[in-house]
């Protein structure tokens, strides 16, 4: 009897030991699956081989892990999408934690504050190194609301090696992270508004300069008209005849200013308004020389054309604006040089798929300090004129620059005082063979 009991107890112990071993093995497999954060170790065969309680627990754990994996993948894709979207924004964006360490920044922020070190988990001040931006962030966190500020910041331009100034609009605001309501931080946006401010300043300067330029001739005309507004005055007197001629000159000046201002306005969006057709640049140049011939003869000037060995100088562009380019450059050379005998040379060259047009003269030249400014609206090199002279509008070279740029080109100037002044125009060679001109006109 005792032997039978010992055998039964031994069997029971073996069964309990095996059961304990199986349970421990099943639990270990579950633990391994949890540690790997994947359901691959919890396949159907494995779960079916587990003890019943552990089997149900394994199914639940497998489903939970699979759902967590899908959620994690979805959140990862959403984060990648949001990061890609924020990287396309041209304004610099920072997201900081409660310690003001960087959690996220977009590509524009990296370009604004370049660094060879890793940005994440670095102090924001260590990256921006501008206490004005940091103070704006501190104020937003202190009052718990959005704060805006404008500053001028000096940056080193890696392309030119020079220091440049940009105008930054700063916006900062506290935020709470959705994953942890108790966790806080802030976001910061830095927008470069330099171009907008420059455009606004140009607009204000244009209005002010235009008003000033129109006021002078109008005052002269009105002054003469008030003097003549008397029934007893004989308008046939020589003094009044001179006054009428003076008013006529200033009336023409007003008309020229208005025409030039309208042209400048059109050129602001000329790329969408150009009437592009093939034409011969030499025809445009010859016509403008013919229009200026009275002034050329008055100045006893000489004009030389050098078009090289090439016979076809066809350009696909707006002939009207090229007329203005040639007219303004030649007229500017004639009017800026009062001494007779001026020599003007116009050369056409074709290099590397571009037309190079140079208009040079051997006149008084342009002072070095004026060269960077001559394409500005209403800017004139000669600021002092005699009373008998009627000043130019100061818009001619500005029209030239914008007309050339509307044709995807550029214009430069080089001058040596008392020796020569050279304007160089470079535009894409859009010439069309003579045999295809008819077809091009049909398409246009």
Could you explain the architecture of this structure?
This protein has 444 residues and is an alpha+beta fold. It has 4 domains: 82 residues, no CATH class; 103 residues, PAS domain (Beta-Lactamase, 2-Layer Sandwich), CATH 3.30.450.20; 74 residues, Helix Hairpins (Orthogonal Bundle); 170 residues, 2-Layer Sandwich (Heat Shock Protein 90), CATH 3.30.565.10. 49% of the residues lie in helices and 20% in strands. The chain is built from 13 helices and 12 strands. The strands form 3 sheets. The protein has a 5-stranded antiparallel beta sheet, with helices on both faces. A 5-stranded mixed beta sheet has the order 7-9-10-12-11, with helices on one face. Strand 1 and strand 2 form a beta hairpin. Helix 7 packs antiparallel against helix 8. The radius of gyration is 40 Å and the shape is elongated. The protein starts with a helix and ends with a helix.
Please report the total strand number as a whole number: 12
Strand content range: 15-25%
Coarse structural class: alpha+beta
End-to-end gap: 117 Å
H-E string? HHHEEHHHEEEHHEHHEEHEEHEEH
- The number of helical elements comes to 13
CATH class label of the largest domain = Alpha Beta
Shape: elongated
User: Low-confidence segments, ≥5 residues, pLDDT <50?
Assistant: 383-390, 432-444
What do the pLDDT scores average to?
A: 79
Radius of gyration: 40 Å
Second-tier CATH architecture of the largest domain: 2-Layer Sandwich
Helix content: 40-55%
Strand order in the largest sheet: 2-1-5-4-3
Number of domains: 4
